[in-house]
Design goal:
This protein is of the alpha/beta class. It folds into 2 domains: 116 residues, Rossmann fold; 91 residues, Arc Repressor Mutant, subunit A (Orthogonal Bundle). Helix content is 38%, strand content 25%. The N and C termini lie far apart (43 Å). About 3% of the residues have low confidence. Bound molecules: calcium ion. The site of calcium ion (CA) has 5 residues, from β4.
Length: 216
């Protein structure tokens, strides 16, 4: 397990790297936005600071997602929900708000790694969710999803017809200690519906959650 820490502030990255290493996670480190893409090779997870000296972390995230689906956890000191929502929409897998505890971060990194391992292929009607390859097709068409959209759809596709509560979706897709607003979930559902191009496929169960329409 190797983490790439993208952070320019020594008072943050020095204890962070030491702490991750203590938790059994190998780390590499860069401080500049322009160094990130070249440093991705062999990396299992990226911890990305949003305020870098030579650019915005969100732009770096956009660049990463053009070539890689490596899990990305964004770290923000701003405490601004907007940054977090944009980050998640751009395909970040999770976020932490500074100051965060290294132990908590290590737990989140492991949770992401667990979710990515050994998950079976799932299928429902024209929709095919291949968890091993992290690919989604509708009929013959491949559907491009962000990492989080994929995770959300994969949970719903486990049991077509079953209602998944909002809380369960938060817990399964984001984090057991997720404290975001409902808006993030709704944003992801909305964008999934648009990309899957079938408004009936994901159904809202008012006041409860969502379910994947089961083919009759
Ligand atoms: Ca910074």
């Amino acid at each position: 397990m190797k983490a790439l820490v993208v952070e320019d502030d020594p008072s943050v990255f020095e204890p962070l790297i030491a702490g991750l290493e203590r938790n059994g996670i190998d780390t590499s480190h860069v401080a500049y936005a322009t160094q990130v893409l070249a440093a991705l090779r062999g990396v299992d997870v990226v911890l990305l600071d949003l305020g870098l000296p030579d650019g915005e972390g969100l732009d770096v995230l956009r660049e990463i997602r053009q070539t890689s689906d490596v899990p990305v956890i964004i770290a923000t000191a701003r405490g601004e929900e907007t940054d977090r929502i944009i980050g998640l929409e751009l395909g970040a897998d999770d976020y932490v708000v500074k100051p965060f505890s290294v132990r908590e971060l290590a737990a989140r990194i492991r949770a992401i790694a667990r979710r990515r391992r050994n998950e079976p292929q799932l299928q429902s009607s024209a929709l095919n969710v291949d968890r091993n390859r992290r690919r989604v097709t509708m009929g013959d068409q491949e559907v491009e999803l962000t990492a989080k959209e994929f995770d959300l759809l994969a949970v719903l596709a486990e049991e077509p017809g079953r209602v998944f509560t909002r809380q369960e979706l938060f817990t399964r897709v984001w984090d057991p200690v997720w404290v975001g607003t409902g808006k993030t979930l709704d944003v992801h559902i909305g964008s999934l519906r648009k990309k899957l191009d079938d408004p009936e496929l994901i159904q809202t169960v008012r006041g409860v959650g969502y379910r994947l329409n089961s083919p009759e």
